[in-house]
């Protein structure tokens, strides 16, 4: 399933300055983030670690740019011209960003290319939002008339995780800038190189001074940014536990907040569809990026009488997955991002066995990998939905197969979760499939396929988050609505 590692990980470009207010400046301290390769465990780059003083400088620059600068006062079309340039500059750096994603996060090169494709899509979409959205409209009512004006919300703190740094940053920043906001981006310490390359693209595009800053840092500095009194809105992607904390901090001062959080998404297989029509998308939907995807299909619900058939098909599919060096073009599954993350996944695998579930494939570390934080793709059978492995987000290449006896039971199981982010329904009868999809309490769901659509509204029900990202719906959270009344 994997072969011995033969490639030595090259070093990435290191940085010695922070991007604050559109300029590369000296950091406030000598603290460094060490970027460790998840495939070789080697130090591959360093960047400055932003501290509270750097946050203060970035927020002050963003505040001044919003209150006094040209960006919020440009027309949406004028801003769109600059966003289109950002997309062009991202395109010029795409190969470097792909390399950074593979090096920092451990994603296979082919997958890195796909994830970075999301970033270019986001900038293209951001540059056309003004053509699909009315920032102003006339309105009349009984006894009066006026104007509805949609204005930028202000200074936006953008906090992103490590599992897709440039794509996630672009999904948030492009609409925020399109709205006329100014932005302070805090990427996770595991993935700062890709976002620094994004900073270079933003610099080259010619954004006005103060509009954008990029501050790689840990959780403590992230909380400081969220609490900052000059931040008007927070947009956060990460775990549900961290999202609760962000929401609580925002509540203290009624700061606007958008949350894109965890998932435990279900894929429901009806009894009328051949598995050969299911496996091309479902077979990889739970283990993409080593399962480090919020929308992964990690619960597979199957008619009880088809469970053995599905397990055989899944095992055959996983047996073809090459686990190994992410630089190898034949690799399909790279390492987990960190030793801590691998330990977490191994603990869930141990817990699943303890709960009575049965490992029918994987469940350990690849024998051939003596370096790197690897886990085999893993299938659990005999899973009941009340087990922790079926209720909690593992964020590793682990899927649970859960049998059901009726469609009503399948819907109940799918909805029996604190999450509601994504999902899939497989049925030959599309009317049946859509009927099931409409009953699932989730923000995005696919029929006879699986994927994340990031240029249309993406976000979650329940504890998977608040608000939507992508498309026109992703622009609206960065705007405030004002009514101007006329006598």
From TrEMBL:
GO terms for molecular function: oxidoreductase activity, acting on the aldehyde or oxo group of donors, NAD or NADP as acceptor. Keywords: Oxidoreductase. PROSITE patterns: ALDEHYDE_DEHYDR_GLU. Pfam families: Aldedh (PF00171). Residues 24-483 form the Aldehyde dehydrogenase domain. The active site is at residue 260. SUPFAM superfamilies: ALDH-like (SSF53720). Belongs to the aldehyde dehydrogenase family. This is Aldehyde dehydrogenase. It comes from Streptomyces brasiliensis. The lineage of its organism: Bacteria, Bacillati, Actinomycetota, Actinomycetes, Kitasatosporales.
């Amino acid at each position: 399933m994997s072969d011995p590692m033969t490639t030595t990980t090259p070093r990435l470009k290191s940085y010695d300055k922070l991007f604050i207010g559109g300029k590369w400046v000296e950091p406030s301290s000598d603290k460094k983030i060490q970027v460790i390769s998840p495939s070789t465990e080697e130090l591959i780059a360093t960047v400055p670690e932003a501290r509270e003083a750097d946050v203060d400088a970035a927020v002050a620059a963003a505040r001044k740019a919003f209150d006094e600068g040209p960006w919020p006062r440009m027309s949406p079309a004028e801003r769109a011209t600059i966003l289109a340039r950002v997309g062009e500059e991202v395109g010029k750096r795409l190969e470097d960003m792909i390399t950074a994603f593979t090096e920092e996060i451990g994603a296979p090169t082919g997958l890195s290319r796909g994830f970075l494709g999301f970033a270019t899509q986001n900038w293209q979409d951001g540059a056309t939002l003004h053509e699909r959205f009315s920032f102003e409209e006339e309105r009349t009512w009984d006894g009066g008339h006026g104007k509805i004006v949609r204005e930028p919300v202000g200074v936006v703190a953008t906090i992103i995780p490590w599992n897709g740094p440039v794509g996630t940053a672009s999904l948030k920043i492009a609409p925020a800038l399109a709205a006329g906001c100014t932005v302070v981006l805090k990427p996770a310490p595991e993935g700062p190189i890709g976002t620094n390359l994004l900073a270079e693209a933003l610099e080259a595009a010619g954004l006005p001074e103060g509009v954008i800053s990029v501050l790689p840092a840990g959780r403590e500095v992230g909380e400081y940014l969220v609490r900052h009194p000059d931040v008007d809105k927070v947009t956060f992607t990460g775990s549900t536990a961290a999202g609760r904390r962000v929401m609580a901090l925002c509540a203290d001062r009624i700061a606007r907040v958008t949350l894109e959080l965890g998932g435990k998404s279900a894929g429901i297989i009806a009894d009328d569809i051949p598995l050969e029509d299911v496996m091309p998308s479902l077979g990889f939907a739970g283990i993409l990026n080593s399962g480090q995807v919020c929308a992964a299909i990690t619960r597979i619900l199957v008619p009880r009488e088809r469970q053995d058939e599905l397990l055989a098909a899944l095992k055959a599919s996983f047996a073809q997955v090459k686990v190994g060096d992410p630089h190898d073009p034949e690799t399909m599954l790279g390492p987990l991002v960190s030793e801590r993350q691998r330990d977490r996944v191994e603990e869930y695998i141990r817990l699943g066995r303890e709960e009575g579930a049965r490992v029918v494939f994987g469940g350990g570390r690849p024998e051939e990998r003596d370096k790197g934080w690897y886990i085999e793709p893993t299938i659990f059978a005999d899973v009941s939905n009340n087990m922790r492995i079926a209720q909690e987000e593992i964020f590793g290449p682990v899927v649970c197969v859960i049998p059901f006896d009726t469609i009503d039971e399948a819907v109940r199981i799918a909805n029996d979760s604190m999450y509601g982010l994504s999902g899939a329904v497989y049925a030959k009868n599309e009317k049946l499939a859509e009927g099931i999809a409409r009953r699932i309490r989730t923000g995005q769901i696919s029929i006879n396929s699986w994927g994340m659509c990031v240029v249309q509204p993406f976000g979650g029900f329940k504890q998977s988050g608040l608000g939507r990202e992508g498309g026109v719906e992703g622009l609206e959270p960065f705007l405030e609505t004002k009514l101007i009344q006329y006598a």
